[in-house]
């Protein structure tokens, strides 16, 4: 990458529009992205960010207007081939690696020149270099099968593929919620790399719901709402409050402390040492991938893997990895909502369709699922709304324990606040929540927190003892860092 | 399961079965004995690799048996009598396979239905080509399949060669990575700008090529053909893929494993004959062996995960 390229923009959108049937997802967007820019794209779920990204990366063709790319030699081109020639790479929100292939084989999928003799060595070198540069000390082997990696490691691989050298060097990398599965220290490594990449003349489009990251890394912020760009200014002209206001949400108030139900009976204990009382919100904290998800899975499967179907179930599960653990991708929104509640919707051995529809409508109203018709396929919803359906599925049952495996991944601020309130209400009504989260804000909402490190619980915090500093202190091995 | 662990179990089951056969019938432990044991495994191994390529892209081929029968009939008639027309027909059959793959992808059809339909087409064509059992193997094919290389029997060399070529194409080449990627995550492959239609067509075409080779080698061994000669290959090939460590979805397959799976299945039949088990019970016993191996694999996988 040299600084002597012509100073034309990398990508130019001129009045780009995109409609899906009657729904206008993107309305006359005009935007240019220059070299050396880190552009943050913010807006709540369904604001049109994903559509905009898909127009830029060539996955969708605009219904009107143009999307054009500036090549290194000064030519301006359009279309998917042009996008690749311009060095535009996209790292998608839903993890899009092939789990059956190795890390280096996954690099082969986007890089067309990896063929012929010795392509494996070349691929291993490219992906290895990228991983070393972005995530020093990552410990991921290029010959490792992706399916054997943790979620965080897979996301790291995906990001590294986006930045890896190739026949066409990366010039603009689109990162859609890149830190959603990463813990804080690895996310920081990524942000450092983004700054270095932009300083060297590259450009990044950064989509994140984490305000801290946006202000940390972006040079310019583009705010989207209802398929339009409503704000496009340098980062220094925004504050957190003005940015949230521009997105159309009220800033969530500080978490109000509530009286933890100290007197109620302990209703569950696990071999790891997790305990919870009735009506308690129990947080599982620590760095991502330190055994929290495994502990939840063991508990949940232990409680529910029974020959007999019990109603209500002993526990319900809210998945964070929606595609893997949560959604029935071919089913409608309604069927996805009623799934866990089905044993209670049976009349004379058959599913009572009317009761099922009622249940879905009730939860649509209660949790605010954005859809005109609940018989639409679940995949027609945006990511945040799909997650709401998974919450509705769990809360619709009368299960005494709700297990949540980092369920807020890639969910917008508005939905989060709404769901937090709902969790609070349900807990007061006597439900117990086991909540693994990678976001500190969410852990601070809990009544009792267990901090995990290397697969074991290293600390139990309650009440005023639950602070970000305490969680961080226990998450890192002090002896090593001292 | 790690790939190296995935291959361990098929190797182990083959070794155990081989040891049992040698124990029952020590005379099998010879050049001639091995050749007899594994002779018929060569076409089955080729058909299994063909089926594996289809399973690799998340489909299943129910027409494998009738297709191999059809190829055998063409080989025993046209290829023997009028080679040019014969080879053109076989090339056409491979192209037809590729076209089926393209159709399945482009119209988003379930492969199980399309190939089930095609199985009747191939069966009908086979009867048209060769109404009564007969025909003759082309001379070169006959010579090749009955060749007696020094030290190692032809059947063993052929099996190793099939495994090697399959491994190179499917596991090592960059083209094979794309095909496996199609099975692992079709969306991501399409997002990277590859045409899923073209890729699925290539996978089916490649499978068709291996299936043609299966039919030809079968005629080389039997010297004649009939329209029902390879009907049981459909289920044998599917069982071989699974026995060899492959999985029905997600592009997780192993060509070496598939060949070993085919050898194991052939050997299981011989083993039961050596046990002097009545042929009425043999198919059931073969099924029992299959279930045994699959159960062992499940235990392996669980152990590896824990």
Tell me what the structure shows.
Chain A has 482 residues and is α/β, with parallel strands linked by helices. Chain A folds into two domains: 11-247, P-loop containing nucleotide triphosphate hydrolases (Rossmann fold, 3-Layer(aba) Sandwich), CATH 3.40.50; 266-481, Rossmann fold (3-Layer(aba) Sandwich). Chain A is built from 17 helices and 20 strands. Chain A has helices at 49-56, 79-85, 103-108, 119-134, 151-163, 184-199, 211-217, 240-247, 292-304, 322-326, 333-338, 353-367, 383-395, 413-428, 440-443, 468-475, 478-481, and strands at 11-20, 23-33, 38-42, 64-70, 76-77, 88-91, 172-176, 203-207, 220-225, 228-234, 266-269, 275-277, 281-285, 315-318, 346-347, 350-351, 401-405, 432-436, 448-453, 456-462. A six-stranded mixed beta sheet of chain A has the order 6-7-8-3-9-10, with helices on both faces. A six-stranded mixed beta sheet of chain A has the order 14-17-18-13-19-20, sandwiched between helices. Chain A has a four-stranded antiparallel beta sheet with strand order 2-1-4-5. In chain A, helix 4 crosses helix 5 (151-163). The longest helix of chain A has 16 residues, at 119-134. The radius of gyration of chain A is 23 Å and the shape is globular. Residues 1-5 and 249-257 of chain A have low confidence and may be disordered. Chain B is built from 14 helices and no strands. Chain B has a single domain (3-305), classed as ABC transporter involved in vitamin B12 uptake, BtuC (Orthogonal Bundle), CATH 1.10.3470. In chain B, helix 4 (64-81) packs antiparallel against helix 5. Chain B is mainly alpha-helical and 306 residues long. Chain A: Residues 11-251, 254-479 form the ABC transporter domain. Chain A: This is Sugar ABC transporter ATP-binding protein. Chain A: It comes from Szabonella alba. Chain A: InterPro entries: AAA+_ATPase (IPR003593), ABC_carbohydrate_import_ATPase (IPR050107), ABC_transporter-like_ATP-bd (IPR003439), ABC_transporter-like_CS (IPR017871), P-loop_NTPase (IPR027417).
